[in-house]
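[audit] Reproducing an earlier prediction to check determinism. Same input, same settings, fresh worker. If the tokens differ from the archived copy the diff job will pick it up downstream; this log only records the rerun itself.
[audit] input (999 residues):
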Amino acid sequence: MSRHILDALMQLFALITLREVGLDRGREVVANFLRSRLNRDLVTEWLNTFESYLVSYGGAVESRKAKGLKRTALRSTKVLRACADINRDLQASEKALVFLRVLEFEMAISEEHVERDRLSRELIDLVADGFGIREGEKKCYETLVFESEQWPTITQRYHEAFLIGDQPQLGGVIKQGWTTALACFRHPESQVVFLRPIGAGAVQLNGELLDTNRTQPFTPGSTLRHPGAAPLHFVDIQRSFMEEENIPELTLSIDEVSHWFQYPNKQALHPFSATAQSGMLVGVMGASGSGKSTLLHLLAGTADPTFGRVELDGIPVTDNRANAHIGLVPQEDHLLPELTVKENLWYAARLAHGKEPETATAKRVDQCLLRLGLQETQDLPVGDALNKTISGGQRKRLNIALELIREPKVLLVDEPTSGLSSKDSESLMDLLKQMTHTGTLVIAVIHQPSGDIFRSFDALWVLDQGGYPVFTGRPLDALTHFRTIVNHFDAEQVACGLCGHVNPEQIFNIIEVPVLDGRGKSTGQRRISPKEWNDFHNVLVVPELEKAAPDQNQTVEFRGKVDNRTPGWGAQWCIQAARDVNRKIKNKQYLLINLLEAPVLAILLAILLRATESSVNYNYGDAQNIPHFLFVSVIVAIFMGLTVSAEELFQDRLMRKREANLHLNWGAYLTAKCAVLFCISALQTVLFSICASVILELPGHFFGYAFTLFSVAASANLFGLIISLLFNSVRVIYLAIPLFIIPQLMLGGAIVPFRSMHTSIAKATGVPWPAQAIISRWGFEALTTMYASDNAFSSPLFGAEQGMAKAEYLRDRWVPEIKRHLDLAQEEDSESLVTLIKGLGRYQLATDIHMSSGINSEAALVIHSQLDTFRNRQRAAWLKAKTERDSILLRLGWDNQSTVKAIKGTELNQTLLDWTTEADVLSTGIALEDNEIHNTKDALYAKAHWPGSGPFHAAQSWIGLTVPKRVANWMVLWAGTFIMMLGLILWGNLKPQGRPRRT
């Protein structure tokens, strides 16, 4: 009995004694009351407390009587004041117990114990009113104390009142062999049962003989025993009420479950069997490394046992029908630190009950916050390990609330009291016990429970090192079991005879007792090994459990109602996206860095690269570093897109693990995540484009510039998500980023020309195959061709300049090169040279010359003549294209050199044009590759090819029709992005469940 309850009783006993029935009689009854419950020293202490209250209240009475106040009114005031003080310290069930003790005290001091006078009844009514005890409940308590023989009548009027016994004439709950009936009343709020024997008989409560003149609380974890009858446990009574209230009762059965981390090595759990029903609180105890968390994951269905079965009403827990009713609260936090307590719970509720209206969800969340005592902290951010804003106990409660909001029928909790104070631990366990009152089966892993927590368990499973089960049964029976095996004196006496305290640490002290050497020091070896304890369990405990177990061949109907309240794909997408956005907005540093990163980098890089040959005035047309800036901007976009997404899936891994039993759509989660990342990247690239365009005076194409960078960043977003999914730590993720960034630099086409790479991949004009998978290559080419060919100056002239470039190449470089190879073919008679000459047919040259036996002098003369004619045609073609270009200039009003120079200076960057045409490269512009002569210059004006083929920096592509190169490259980038997204979706849907972590 707690000090608060004793102090409350002493106050009320003093007030009752002062009603002039005799102080000596009152002292005598109080002394007898204390002697039956406390040791001698405590009896003296509390008798002194009683005397002090007599003096205090008695002096007040005399003082008030001197003023002429009525004694009854005076007593009423004192009683109500005492009750008000008591209300601050005691819970409802404790106040009910105090009220019962007051009734027993009243009965003890009443004359002849027969009739209660009017003043007694008034006093009892005052105490009941002061404690907030309703009339019906008060009537039950009074009958229990004063008229227990009338209890059968009470049971017919009040649902919470019932009888235990095998006398059919009394009615109530029939228990075979219980010749002594028990009058019982279940407290409506706490579910504690108050009981009193009716008649004579030996009934033991937790090993102590019940006094027929005293009402006793029957609390969770307690056991009643009667000679010749089966024990009656608290959970048995609770289950009978569940049946009356039509609460579905589920049975979790564990049948010879064993598990290996790597079969046949590293066994995590040895064969284990147990059964648990709805409404039970099951404790799992064991040292570190005993497989407690492994067992919990097997029960949750997040891992398949190597051997054996775990079933919920005959359905495997890995089946969605059963899995939907199971909630797992792991030891580590599964909270979103950026969100508030209420927001964490709100999004969990929306994902679990998304088909109900938001108003119903809001009500559900408020009720859950109130139930778990979190309403005062609901608007505080959760925080993380380094920035905590709520206490450890509140974090534990919130973790439980995230599962409780789903309304699971089975709740698995891993180390709920770890790191908490004793007060917070007991408060949290009280909460878990309250859940069992509504039919929830709670299985909690607890390393070192207090005595009160230990007694609250309805069942206890003990595991030893190496995953050996060493006990399965009732908590108090566990102490008897281990004490008996090691021959402890009085092994049956497991609790203190005076206060009922239990010391659970005895279990580990007995299990782990070491072998001592001759000097009395520990040898480091255990006296009884885990395997031996397991053998004791299999021989002494398992047979008794098998006798009480239900028939295994009996068909069990699944009683869990499958109510699919999970929202659809679209609703899930919206909830996931809203939660992700809210998290990012709440993280001020994240928001600030992502908003400032792009403009700061753009300003810094643009200023550094804003340079012309003339140091006086900046002019876009003469700027020397435009190609370099375009490439750097692509790299920046890749870097921003990669870093913004590299942690996303990794930091959500615990959240996704927590929500696994909701069976949410992975595709909805991933696409919502991508949508949020795309929005961030879009904002960053727009800010970057604005700053860069203003500082470097980039002409037009703001949308094209920003969209190219966005397309590149979006592809990098997906690469970042892949990285965050592949690696298991943030450090490894960021160590892996250079493996992606460096190839973007080297194979992007700006730092190292493709033709200068290793001979195995180098190409004269095209793009090497490794570069085809490089994001920067597609983005850089899109930007260079856009600014070089599609601007106010180049666009109207592009067709004519393309014709001039082609004619100039054929006239001045191709024809002389063919003539040179023709002369070599006569001298060397090389097959490759012959093949080259044969390829002239595409230009309608050498079509009527027979070269099966090589090229003779006659054939060479003919081809030379044809080449001269072909060169003359190209001269004419060049002049025609030049004339067309001049006419366009006249039509546009650009009829003098100064106008052309001015417009060109603002619209076309000469360095960029030279870059794309390689006009400043000192080479012949001719290369022989694959028995064909290629133009290594004027790539910008090359004919359209399929994306990925043709010269690098060609202005046009062919996709069934001719389109600008940037459009084709955008299509390639987004095709790659969506392919990666689809791959992630498929991977997530096919990925097997991970193995649990051993603890």
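[audit] rerun output stored. Observation attached for the diff report: Residues 60-69, 112-116, 992-999 have pLDDT under 50 and may be disordered.
[audit] end
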